[in-house]
């Protein structure tokens, strides 16, 4: 277990990172009169685990949707690994290497666990309509995909469930499956929307290990989480959103005692009282 | 009442050209609804453009094979027309557009005068002569006793069932492939497929067009069998008949649509013959049900049996019960 990655950056909203994989500027989204997201600048350090925290309604999930193409910003840009992503449809962003999970798991219940995994592999010849009926054209690749899927399932402790319908899995197992499935897509960066929500506490530890495992394999992780113990335990860097904007960012310890963060969570008076 | 005759008639309908044509129709719909989850409520329009494409081409002096190509091309075009504006939207929109689009198209075909390209309500007849010229079966009756086909019926039935076999095989190959895997993922959760880099829109469009082409062949078969096309053959009820056949056989099952079509036509023709026989034999008093009521009455029976099926056997004859039960979780 390598030590947490130190992010050599200033603990200021929108600060510059030495090696940013994702750069967001001026991203804005409003629903009617409500400004849901208004992020002036955010850089995400490559190879680190960055937590995105904030009170309910701070715009975290909307921000995720904007980054991954599931919603379109009213303005602003996001550049992923040097490629502009703004306005691209979700599947193009996923193929570029930025793959997300959802707050409510989207394990495909009527498909087997193994099929869930195989689905996620990229560049499959057999997914072309004209090649699909000709088994010869894709059988070799399919075997490679399957081998990779089984390997990942073993790593995530799901191998013996490979032929079960995904709908029969427990909540925690579904979260594991979703995380394993994301890896099948061979991403450079994963965005996890509340990976611990609804998970049996006994499984949280195992999920955390897997999130660390992602980083250890060189992936960048950005995740939304409410559980502060989880955030403090595994993140290298914490970004706090409030009312759509980035109000603070920095190493976990620094953010936890940041006045703006406490204020956002507990209200102004509490923050002042905390100072005393 | 001659029960043997009634049964023979029912079997003839179920294994004849119409049974095969409905099997094809349901196979196309199975790809749309069963495997991709597309709620296509204008399926009958694919049969219509296939039939009219063929009939118009031949009547305008084109060869028969060209007519079939035109029919298929028309189905591809219709699939794009239905799909391009709606497949980016939620499922319900496709249902609305297809049911309305099919009716608009039918009304346009119907509104032409006697001298128009479609001959309006008069339809086009006798365009399949060159198809029957190819008939390898000599004149005569083929079959056993009362269950017999003329050489013309046999020829259409053989070609139709060959098409059913090809379509079934094609569908089995398609849904087993990674392409089919993406369709099943889309059926369950489009956003999940999208988040994993699948171009959901393109897959749905391919499914709509492929299933539409299969249905166009069903339309061509029916048109050949009747040697006529007429706009009133393609009422929206035809689509719902196809859904009945599909659900009866088993949605998303491989040979469900074929079995569904055969069983459906057998029961449909059997009830018809049986009720008429029972009325003329005096078993059912004319005051309760007269011969003219049999047509509408058996449609009521179809509706009733579809309802009972959904309640007691939602997976149909061949569908997987576990898959249906997973929905309830």
Quick gist of this model?
The complex is a heterodimer of chains A (276) and B (329). Chain A is an alpha/beta fold and 276 residues long.
Q: Can you put this structure into words, describing what you see?
A:
- The complex is a heterodimer of chains A (276) and B (329).
- Chain A is built from ten helices and ten strands.
- Chain A has 276 residues and is α/β, with parallel strands linked by helices.
- Chain A folds into two domains: 20-106 and 187-275, P-loop containing nucleotide triphosphate hydrolases (Rossmann fold, 3-Layer(aba) Sandwich), CATH 3.40.50; 108-168, no CATH class.
- In chain A, the strands form two sheets. Chain A has a six-stranded mixed beta sheet, sandwiched between helices.
- Chain A starts with 19 loop residues before the first strand and ends with a helix.
- The model of chain A has no long low-confidence stretch (mean pLDDT 90).
- Chain B has 329 residues and is mainly alpha-helical.
- Chain B has a single domain (3-326), classed as Orthogonal Bundle (ABC transporter involved in vitamin B12 uptake, BtuC), CATH 1.10.3470.
- Chain B contains 14 helices and four strands.
- Chain B has helices spanning 3-15, 17-35, 43-59, 64-86, 91-111, 129-133, 151-176, 178-188, 190-195, 200-226, 237-249, 256-280, 294-312, 321-326; strands at 124-125, 141-144, 147-150, 228-229.
- Chain B has a two-stranded antiparallel sheet with strand order 1-4. Chain B has a two-stranded antiparallel ribbon with strand order 2-3.
- In chain B, β2 and β3 (147-150) form a beta hairpin.
- The longest helix of chain B is centred in the middle third of the chain and has 27 residues, at 200-226.
- Chain B is globular.
- Chain B starts with a helix and ends with a helix.
């Amino acid at each position: 277990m390598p030590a947490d990655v130190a992010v050599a950056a200033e603990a200021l909203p929108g600060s510059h990172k030495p090696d940013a994989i994702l750069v967001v500027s001026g991203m804005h989204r409003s629903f009617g009169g409500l400004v849901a997201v208004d992020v002036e600048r955010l850089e995400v350090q490559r190879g680190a685990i960055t937590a995105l925290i904030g009170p309910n309604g701070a715009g975290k999930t909307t921000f995720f949707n904007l980054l991954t193409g599931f919603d379109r910003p009213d303005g602003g840009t996001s550049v992923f690994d040097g490629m502009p992503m703004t306005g691209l449809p979700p599947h193009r962003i996923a193929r570029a290497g930025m793959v997300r999970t959802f707050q409510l798991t989207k394990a495909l219940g009527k498909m087997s666990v193994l099929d869930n995994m195989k689905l996620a592999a990229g560049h499959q010849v057999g997914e072309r309509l004209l090649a699909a009926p000709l088994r010869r054209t894709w059988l070799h690749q399919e075997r490679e995909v399957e081998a990779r899927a089984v390997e990942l399932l073993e790593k995530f402790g799901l191998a013996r469930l490979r032929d079960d319908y995904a709908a029969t899995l427990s909540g925690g197992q579904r979260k594991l499956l979703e995380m394993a499935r994301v890896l099948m897509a061979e991403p450079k960066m994963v965005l996890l929307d509340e990976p611990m929500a609804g998970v049996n506490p006994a499984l949280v530890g195992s999920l955390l290990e897997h999130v660390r495992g992602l980083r250890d394999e060189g992936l960048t992780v950005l995740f939304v989480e409410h559980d502060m113990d989880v955030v403090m335990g595994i993140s290298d860097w914490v970004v706090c959103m409030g009312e759509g904007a980035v109000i603070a960012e920095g190493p976990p310890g620094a953010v936890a005692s940041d006045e703006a963060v406490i204020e956002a969570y507990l209200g102004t008076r509490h923050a002042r009282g905390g100072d005393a | 009442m001659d029960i043997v005759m009634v049964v023979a008639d029912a079997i003839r309908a179920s294994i004849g050209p119409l049974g095969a044509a409905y099997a094809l129709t349901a196979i196309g719909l199975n790809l749309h609804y069963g495997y991709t989850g597309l709620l296509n409520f204008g399926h009958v329009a694919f049969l219509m453009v296939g039939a009219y494409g063929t009939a118009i081409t031949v009547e305008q002096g084109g060869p028969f094979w060209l007519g079939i190509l035109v029919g298929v091309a028309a189905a591809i075009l219709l699939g794009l027309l239905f799909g391009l504006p709606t497949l980016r939207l939620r499922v319900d929109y496709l249902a609305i557009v297809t049911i309305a689009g099919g009716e608009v198209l039918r009304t346009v075909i119907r509104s032409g005068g006697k001298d128009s390209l479609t001959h309006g309500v008069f339809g086009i007849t006798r365009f399949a002569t060159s198809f029957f010229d190819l008939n390898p079966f000599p004149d005569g009756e083929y079959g056993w006793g009362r269950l017999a086909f003329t050489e013309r019926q046999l020829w259409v039935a053989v070609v139709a069932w060959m098409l059913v076999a090809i379509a079934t095989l094609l569908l089995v190959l398609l849904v087993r492939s990674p392409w089919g895997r993406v369709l099943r993922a889309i059926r369950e959760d489009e956003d999940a497929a999208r988040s994993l880099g699948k171009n959901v829109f393109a897959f749905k469009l391919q499914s709509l067009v492929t299933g539409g082409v299969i249905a166009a062949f069903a339309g061509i078969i029916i048109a050949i069998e009747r040697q006529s096309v007429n706009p009133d053959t393609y009422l929206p009820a035809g689509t719902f008949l196809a859904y009945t056949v599909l659900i009866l056989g088993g949605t998303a099952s491989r040979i469900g649509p074929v079995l569904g079509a055969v069983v459906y036509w057998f029961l449909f023709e059997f009830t018809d013959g049986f009720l008429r026989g029972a009325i003329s034999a005096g078993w059912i008093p004319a005051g309760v049900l007269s011969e003219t009521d049999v047509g509408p009455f058996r449609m009521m029976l179809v509706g009733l049996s579809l309802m009972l099926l959904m309640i007691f056997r939602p997976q149909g004859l061949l569908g997987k019960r576990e898959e249906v039960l997973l929905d309830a979780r």
